[in-house]
């Protein structure tokens, strides 16, 4: 396969019947599949074979889905392009020569290329919505707590949610119906999704819908992206929706707060990879510290090391209050801002990504610039809210995504609104 | 540039805390990048103090025995094992 969509191609058959019978699904390679290796796009877990299924995988099987492979991804979910994978970059099937977005780039590409009907990704700061936007498909980041994270290899566990991809909003909602709901293995799950019927909400009815457009999420965005965004908004207006501008002053600080929190959590979560219980083992001799440090030097790529080290720094003595505590303040501020904006509108709309897909290789050298590309998606993870990215059109032949954000557990409303576009 | 500009010794120290060996090239590259990134993180100083929601509650399950992985499954991914245990290098 020329696009390098899958790290491992393997058919895992589900139950004989169920709501997803006859449906193929690609699963991001940081979601555990019993007996099938789960690498997280890393040399560290190149040979790791989980002894159990993630809850979402059990639910896929019970629903009759056929898993067709483990999809490529940025190493441990850290990236915006799927170029940091140890197994090589994925090409964008919708815009060849460009990145598919990240970190769930393989999952979005699988749907865009027709290699799978549906796919699962994980979204810590936009990792479902970004590749959905870049590949011209639909991606949903559920409310925090709607979908079990049991069996998802943790990176930033206070931020991340597993989310579905589909060609249409209804397709993605159908997959969300299967994976949503409480789980005894994940105490952060809630009961709101237990008897969901999100697919039925995809009626495309936006008559009377009040849409808030946060001005801060349009500032600095690429001109062609902004034009495409407004064309889609005009389309929604033509179907009876109304929009007005809203302000979210806190989002100016969301990117730095997000990265401080995500890196801090990463430094803790990735401490488990020691090459003793599992993970890459080095040939180095010496004591436990020497061997451990060598295995991690060899097993982790640049972006993973960068985030573990910066997270360790942000949590170290003398810097905790300066970075981590301030980031938590910013997170609380972002939540308040969204609550306020959503009291004046049913949903909020913005471009998903402020830029069209980068060319392959274009963006890797400057990590800070790449972090800034996540400006429109990370605030939603800080606020624990649901969001959806739907195709809005193209600029210079490259896909543009429109992001809708709703109140906590407002997935039915988001799905109803987004289905007017795809 | 902040008062706490990152120097190579600091990067090496953090790498030691995080148990990641770095070669000299990596230390050089990360030193420059960390200076830029941490300077950017310092704009968090502009964030006002915010009242946080106080509705957090611990979620505890009953402390009861329940099935878990058997030891063969738990050891399956270990590079080295001995007598049903993980085998690692000496601690000191």
Automatic annotation (TrEMBL), chain A:
One Pfam family it belongs to: Amidase
Occurrences of domain Amidase (ranges): 11-414
Positions annotated as active site in the UniProt record: 28 (charge relay system), 103 (charge relay system), 127 (acyl-ester intermediate)
Keywords annotated in UniProt: ATP-binding, Ligase, Nucleotide-binding, Protein biosynthesis
GO biological process, one term: translation
InterPro entries documented for this protein: Amidase, Amidase_CS, Amidase_dom, AS_sf, GatA
Molecular-function GO term, any one: glutaminyl-tRNA synthase (glutamine-hydrolyzing) activity
Biased composition annotated in UniProt, kind: Polar residues: 82-93
Region (Disordered): 82-108
CC per GO annotation: glutamyl-tRNA(Gln) amidotransferase complex
Catalytic reaction(s) noted: L-glutamyl-tRNA(Gln) + L-glutamine + ATP + H2O = L-glutaminyl-tRNA(Gln) + L-glutamate + ADP + phosphate + H(+)
Highest taxon listed in the record's lineage: Archaea
Root EC class: ligase
Assembly with partners or alone: Heterotrimer of A, B and C subunits.
Function of the protein: Allows the formation of correctly charged Gln-tRNA(Gln) through the transamidation of misacylated Glu-tRNA(Gln) in organisms which lack glutaminyl-tRNA synthetase. The reaction takes place in the presence of glutamine and ATP through an activated gamma-phospho-Glu-tRNA(Gln).
HAMAP family per record: GatA
Name under which the protein is recorded: Glutamyl-tRNA(Gln) amidotransferase subunit A
Species classification: Archaea, Methanobacteriati, Methanobacteriota, Stenosarchaea group, Halobacteria
TrEMBL record, chain B:
Region of interest: Disordered: 59-92
A UniProt-annotated Pfam family: GatC
InterPro entries noted in UniProt: Asp/Glu-ADT_sf_sub_c, GatC
SUPFAM superfamilies in UniProt: Glu-tRNAGln amidotransferase C subunit
Keywords of the record: ATP-binding, Ligase, Nucleotide-binding, Protein biosynthesis
Listed GO biological process terms: glutaminyl-tRNAGln biosynthesis via transamidation; regulation of translational fidelity; translation
EC number, UniProt record: 6.3.5.-
Single GO MF annotation: glutaminyl-tRNA synthase (glutamine-hydrolyzing) activity
Gene3D superfamilies: Glu-tRNAGln amidotransferase C subunit, N-terminal domain
Domain of life: Archaea
Reaction catalyzed: L-aspartyl-tRNA(Asn) + L-glutamine + ATP + H2O = L-asparaginyl-tRNA(Asn) + L-glutamate + ADP + phosphate + 2 H(+); L-glutamyl-tRNA(Gln) + L-glutamine + ATP + H2O = L-glutaminyl-tRNA(Gln) + L-glutamate + ADP + phosphate + H(+)
Listed Basic and acidic residues bias regions: 59-68
Keyword Protease: no
Entry's transmembrane regions: none
Subunit structure: Heterotrimer of A, B and C subunits.
Family the entry assigns: Belongs to the GatC family.
HAMAP family named among the record's database cross-references: GatC (MF_00122)
Primary role: Allows the formation of correctly charged Asn-tRNA(Asn) or Gln-tRNA(Gln) through the transamidation of misacylated Asp-tRNA(Asn) or Glu-tRNA(Gln) in organisms which lack either or both of asparaginyl-tRNA or glutaminyl-tRNA synthetases. The reaction takes place in the presence of glutamine and ATP through an activated phospho-Asp-tRNA(Asn) or phospho-Glu-tRNA(Gln).
Protein name: Aspartyl/glutamyl-tRNA(Asn/Gln) amidotransferase subunit C
Species assigned in the record: Natrinema halophilum
């Amino acid at each position: 396969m020329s696009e390098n969509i899958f790290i491992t191609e393997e058919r895992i058959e589900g139950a004989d019947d169920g709501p997803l019978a006859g449906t193929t699904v690609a699963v991001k390679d940081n979601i555990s599949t019993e007996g099938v290796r789960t690498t997280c796009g890393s040399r560290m877990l190149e040979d790791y074979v989980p002894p159990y299924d993630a809850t979402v995988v059990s639910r896929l099987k019970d629903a009759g889905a056929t898993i067709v492979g483990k999809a490529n991804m940025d190493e441990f979910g850290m990236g915006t392009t799927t170029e940091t994978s140890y197994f090589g970059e994925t090409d964008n099937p919708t815009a060849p020569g460009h990145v598919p977005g990240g970190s769930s780039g393989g999952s979005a590409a699988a749907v865009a290329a027709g290699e799978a009907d549906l796919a699962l990704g994980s979204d810590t700061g936009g990792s479902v919505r970004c590749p959905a936007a870049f590949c011209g498909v639909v991606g949903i980041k559920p409310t925090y707590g709607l979908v079990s994270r049991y069996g998802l290899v943790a990176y930033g566990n206070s931020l991340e949610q597993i989310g579905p991809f589909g060609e249409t909003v209804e397709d993605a909602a159908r997959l969300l119906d299967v994976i949503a709901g409480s789980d005894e293995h994940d105490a952060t799950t809630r009961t709101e999704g237990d008897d969901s019927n999100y697919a039925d909400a995809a009626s495309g009815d936006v008559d009377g819908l009040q849409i808030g457009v946060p001005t801060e999420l349009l500032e600095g965005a690429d001109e062609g992206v902004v034009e495409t965004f407004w064309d889609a908004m005009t389309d929604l207006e033509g179907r009876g929706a109304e929009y007005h501008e809203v302000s979210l002053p806190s989002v100016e600080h969301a990117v730095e707060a997000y990265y401080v929190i995500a890196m801090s959590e990463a430094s803790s979560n990735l401490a488990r990879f020691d090459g003793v219980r599992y993970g890459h083992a080095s040939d180095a001799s010496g004591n436990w510290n020497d061997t451990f440090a060598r295995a991690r030097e060899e097993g982790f790529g640049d972006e993973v090391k960068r985030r573990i080290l910066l997270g360790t720094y942000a949590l170290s003595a003398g810097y905790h209050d300066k970075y981590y505590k301030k980031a938590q303040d910013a997170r609380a501020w972002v939540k308040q801002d969204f609550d306020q904006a959503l009291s004046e509108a049913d949903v909020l709309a913005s471009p998903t990504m402020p830029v069209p897909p980068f060319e392959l290789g274009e963006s890797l050298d400057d990590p800070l610039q790449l972090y800034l590309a996540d400006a429109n998606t990370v605030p939603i993870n800080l606020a624990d809210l649901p969001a959806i990215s739907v195709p809005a059109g193209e600029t210079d032949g490259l896909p543009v995504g429109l992001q809708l954000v709703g109140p906590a557990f407002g997935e039915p409303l988001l799905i109803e609104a987004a289905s007017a576009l795809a | 540039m902040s008062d706490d500009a990152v120097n190579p010794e600091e990067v090496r120290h953090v790498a030691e805390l995080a148990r990641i060996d770095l070669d000299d090239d990596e230390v050089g590259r990360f030193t420059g990048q960390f200076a830029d990134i941490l300077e950017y993180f310092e704009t968090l100083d502009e964030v006002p103090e915010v009242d946080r929601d106080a509705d957090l509650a611990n979620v505890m399950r009953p402390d009861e025995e329940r099935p878990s992985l058997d030891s063969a499954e738990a050891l399956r991914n270990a590079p080295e094992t001995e007598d049903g245990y993980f085998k690692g290098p000496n601690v000191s």
